[in-house]
Amino acid sequence: MLFMKAGSVRSRFFWAVILLLGGLLVSGVIYLEAATRFEPRTLQLVPGPLVLDRKGRILRLIPGLQGQRLVKLPEGKIPSLVAQAFIAAEDQRFWCHPGIDAVAVLRAAGQNLAAGRIVSGASTLTMQLSRLAYPGPRTYHRKILEAVRSLRIEQTLSKEEVLRAYLDRVPLGGNLVGVETASLAYFNKSASDLTPGEAASLAALAKAPTAWRPWGPRADRLAARQRLILGRMAQLGFLSPQELAAARQEPLVFHGAGRGAPILPFQAPHLVQIALSRGKSSRTTQGRLATTLDLSLQQRVEALVRSHRTQLARAGASQAAAVVVDNRTMAVLALVGSLHYGPRDQGFNNGVTALRSPGSTLKPFLYAQALDQGFSSAAVLEDVERHYRTPRGEFNPANFDRSSHGPVSFREALGNSLNLSAVHLLNQVGPSAYYDTLIRLHLINHPERGPEHYGLGLVVGNPEVTLLQLTAAYATLANGGLYRPLRFTSGDPVDPGVQVFSPQAAYIVTDILADPLARTRIFGGAPAMNPVCRLALKTGTSTRYRDCWCVAYSPEFTIAVWVGNFNGQPTARLSGASGAAPIVAEIAHEVFAGTVPQDFPRPQGIISRNVCSFSGLVPGPGCIHQRQELFIAGAEPTQVCTYHQPRDPWHRMPTLYAGWLHKRHGQGGEGRFRLAGFPLDLDKVFPPVQPAASAPPKPASRNGKVSLGLGGAGAGLPRFNPPAPGEVPLVSITYPLNGDRFQLLPGADSVRLTLKADCRMPVPAITWLVNGREQAATAPPYELTLDLARGRYHLTAVAPDGRGDAVEVMVE
Ligand SMILES: [Zn+2]
């Protein structure tokens, strides 16, 4: 029993030990399994994109999420010299071992025991990969785990995959990760293009990327190891003796400079920003983002824009921006966002995406639309001072040269960028219709405001736009009226586009913008406005000379420049023509590089006709001055000139221009202009002293009804007939406007107003009625000066036949 008892105690102890050992083993296995687990996912790095130009030149390498700069090796075969250099340096039996190199371990163990510390790691590339993927302190314990994990990695991945993962992971100085990244950074080439010496130096650098950095104090250690690795490559048969000798002769040149990592390219920063911010459309392929930029053109344009800095600064402009676009593909070839990407003059700001007032640069789109609405390209536009009522108050446009040019041709009005005629044209085209066109051209950035917000100011720079938007809109004219969005990356699709204008309208507007003679009146003296090559060209200047713009295009390219200050300060009277056009001319010189721009292809349906230079009508026998004009077939004039008579030297203009001619006559500059239907002696047409108001008119009684003069209060007074709806009025009161309110100045008991009327027919005089009472009759220019006291006034202008116009105003 005792024996039995003792036996059973022993047996129980035995089983307890077995159980304990078993338990330990199981938990050990479980622990080891967990501690050496390998998830292929951990090898996946999210690289920041490598941004390239259209020819694959590096613009910028964006750091990845973990802050590292990484460009993965391109897919396909691993560059053999790189593989050989790293294998020779780190793991000569890489292709045969299962993840652990037993030979190396034994040798290392001997060395470490002898030294009493770790001097040799015997780390295979697989073990190094394991450490890179699961970083931690370098202890014996971790080394064992690494070794086990390496076995598991090798079971999951092929040798090729292990090598590739390692080469994409290995740190090579600063935040550079991977051999492709280091090749680009240190040698400015892809890893597949490295020489044996360069490949060996990267393998050498992997040993101590910080301590042995190429520009550090211990760069000699790097060189020594590189020679060692080259030797081993030869021993292993990777290099022939001749190749080894050549590699040792090869001077090793690292690109970049600095104490730490090399300086990677940082090109076209503003374009890179845009390309990166475009989300889906800038999806990268293998971490590479190919932009449409042409780096060499970009560098030339940058230098050129920058060369204007001093000159611009003298004129009160601290910044400039420029864009060059290939019209055929809408690819942005060059983009300069500021004079220098830096803190100076807010240079980090991107001038091509800043919303600014475009001045006159939106005018060509109005003219193109007018042509599509049936306007004749030889139409005479009234360039006379006018007051307009808009939802935002009265609008009194003025020309850049502060004068008015009377009857001007469509061509000259656009070429010289005359504001008065542009607003006159907009009033006829209709602000809403024009607004819709601007929407289609993507030039309205606040559609919630609606056309009323801008009113007639739509055509003189009220809607703010960006230089990029303007460039795309002008490319529309270059592309026969087809709007397509700009492209920044090769991944951006080539959009089929929207036909905003007919090809004919786009062609005629382009022909005008490319016609130096059409702009001589205002821009004749500016050399930059007469480029050597045939380019369509338009400038713009915003209020108080804040923004200076110039856009030029050929069928192939659109070039746009903005000059001004990012803080909105006005320049010192710099204009689009004096500030931006010279830069555009120089860029054009670079872009065309000695080649001649193509002619704009003439679409079907364009005809050429002779017209009278003054009236734009079919020349009659008296029309001495004639010129050729282009028309959309069907819009050519059919009426014979009314300005000229045979053997008569005078230009007899419609009565509409009475006010304009009167002013000009007062300045002695009437030339041969006369009013049709009136004597040739302008002193007789315009009496030197207009009849003064006989007595100050009385305001209407506060509540009483205002007499409109219907029926007439006195003998001979014409009966007033307001124009029927749709009828072109014979007489229109152009000032004041119906509903105008005038404030009395402090201390004054009346305001002085000069009433003005337009007349479409040569009537000798019109009669003015104030609150139904005849005030005076005035001959051309049909103006009457009155002093009006506080109160309400109904003003009527009536032609002898009774046709007329009426407005109501308040003096408060
Ligand atoms: Zn004529």
From TrEMBL:
Presence of the UniProt keyword 4Fe-4S in the record: no
Pathways per UniProt: Cell wall biogenesis; peptidoglycan biosynthesis
Gene3D superfamilies named among the record's database cross-references: Biosynthetic peptidoglycan transglycosylase-like (1.10.3810.10), DD-peptidase/beta-lactamase superfamily (3.40.710.10), Immunoglobulins (2.60.40.10)
Listed Pfam families: BiPBP_C (PF06832), Transgly (PF00912), Transpeptidase (PF00905)
GO CC terms in record: outer membrane-bounded periplasmic space
Record GO terms (molecular function): carboxypeptidase activity; penicillin binding; peptidoglycan glycosyltransferase activity
Catalytic activity entry: [GlcNAc-(1->4)-Mur2Ac(oyl-L-Ala-gamma-D-Glu-L-Lys-D-Ala-D-Ala)](n)-di-trans,octa-cis-undecaprenyl diphosphate + beta-D-GlcNAc-(1->4)-Mur2Ac(oyl-L-Ala-gamma-D-Glu-L-Lys-D-Ala-D-Ala)-di-trans,octa-cis-undecaprenyl diphosphate = [GlcNAc-(1->4)-Mur2Ac(oyl-L-Ala-gamma-D-Glu-L-Lys-D-Ala-D-Ala)](n+1)-di-trans,octa-cis-undecaprenyl diphosphate + di-trans,octa-cis-undecaprenyl diphosphate + H(+)
First-tier enzyme category under EC: transferase
InterPro entries, per database record: Beta-lactam/transpept-like (IPR012338), Glyco_trans_51 (IPR001264), Glycosyltr_51/Transpeptidase (IPR050396), Ig-like_fold (IPR013783), Lysozyme-like_dom_sf (IPR023346), PBP_1c (IPR011815), PBP_C (IPR009647), PBP_transglycosylase (IPR036950)
E.C. numbers: 2.4.99.28
Superkingdom per UniProt: Bacteria
Residue span, Penicillin-binding C-terminal domain: 731-808
The UniProt record lists the keyword Nucleotide-binding: no
Protein family (similarity comment): In the C-terminal section; belongs to the transpeptidase family.
Protein name per UniProt: peptidoglycan glycosyltransferase
Organism the protein comes from: Desulfobacca acetoxidans
Gene: pbpC
